[in-house]
Amino acid sequence: MASTARSAPLTDALVAEPQFQEILRSSRSLTQRILESVEDTHKSCVHLQSLQWKVPENAKLATMRSTIGIPSAPVIKPISANFSLETALRAMHDGLELHHGLLRSISPRLEVKDRMNALQYDVRDLKIEIFRMLKIKTTEATVPPTPTSVELHLPGDYEVQVAAHLTLVQLQAFSQDVARCFRSLDRSDQEETDS
Questions:
Q1: Is it the case that residue 154 has pLDDT exceeding 80?
Q2: Nearest to 86 by CA among 150, 8, 146
Q3: How many CB atoms lie within 10 A of CB 97?
Q4: Which residues are CB-neighbours of 15 under 8 A, at least 6 positions away?
Q5: Given 3.30.390.30, 2.60.40.10, 1.20.1250.10, 1.10.760.10, which CATH number is that of 9-194?
Q6: Are 98 and 150 in contact (CB under 8 A)?
Q7: Is the pLDDT assigned to residue 120 strictly greater than 80?
Q8: Name one GO biological process term (predicted).
Q9: What are phi and psi for residue 175, nearest 5 degrees?
């Protein structure tokens, strides 16, 4: 559905640029790697039985989210006249900046942090790729935003475990939205369907 809605012919021309498509393919690969590693990262660092991977967030976890101070990720919608490519890329960048900050805040407090650190680097690399797409898309020179510091209230191990769980679940949902948006922009997918 997202691939049928376009913001303008200019967006089509920018998206069709070979350099943009190359960065997009790299970004799709990184997004897929993030999606594939989130659950394993969860298994390696979240050890509380009450924080199972596929269990939906309940009222207690929603309260803990607020107490710990985990912000919600930006919403990514299909590209349309009301949600431009630039808006989508900025939302992706902001969301990845948020998750990178959350992972950076949580990682030092974990006993086992190897997978969390690897995931953190993938999120950072994807954020850089999206910034490169933004530079192609925007006409004015864009200065990379300074990394956002995320202050979490993590007095004990329980809060660290909950923060890791909630962050990883949110990162997976956000990354799925990013993957859907990328799929709608990837011209190689559309060329294969057209032939």
A1: yes
A2: 8
A3: 22
A4: 21, 24, 85, 185, 187
A5: 1.20.1250.10
A6: yes
A7: yes
A8: positive regulation of myeloid cell differentiation
A9: -65, -35
Residue indicated by tokens 């993957």: 179
**From the CA atom positions of the chain, what is the Rg in Å?**
18
* Rounded Cα distance, 139 and 121, in Å: 28
Of the candidates 84, 93, 102, 77, the residue with the CA atom closest to the CA atom of residue 23: 93
For 106, the enclosing helix (H) or strand (E) is: helix 85-106
Tokens of 139: 């006409």
**C-alpha 96, offset from chain centre:** 4
Q: For 93-118, write each residue's pLDDT tens digit.
A: 999 999 999 999 999 999 999 999 99
The closest alpha carbon to 174, from 111, 100, 113, 115, belongs to 100
Residue 138 is encoded by which pair of tokens? 């925007």
Task: Return the residue matching tokens 């007095």.
Answer: 155
What is the C-alpha to C-alpha distance for residues 37 and 94, in angstroms, rounded to an integer? 21
Q: Which of 174, 167, 169 is nearest to 127 (CA)?
A: 174
Q: What is each CA distance from 152 to 15, 31, 72, 101, 125, in whole angstroms?
A: 37, 25, 13, 10, 23
Q: Which two tokens stand for residue 125?
A: 């690399």
Q: Find the helix packing angle between 85-106 and 114-137, rounded to 10°.
A: 160
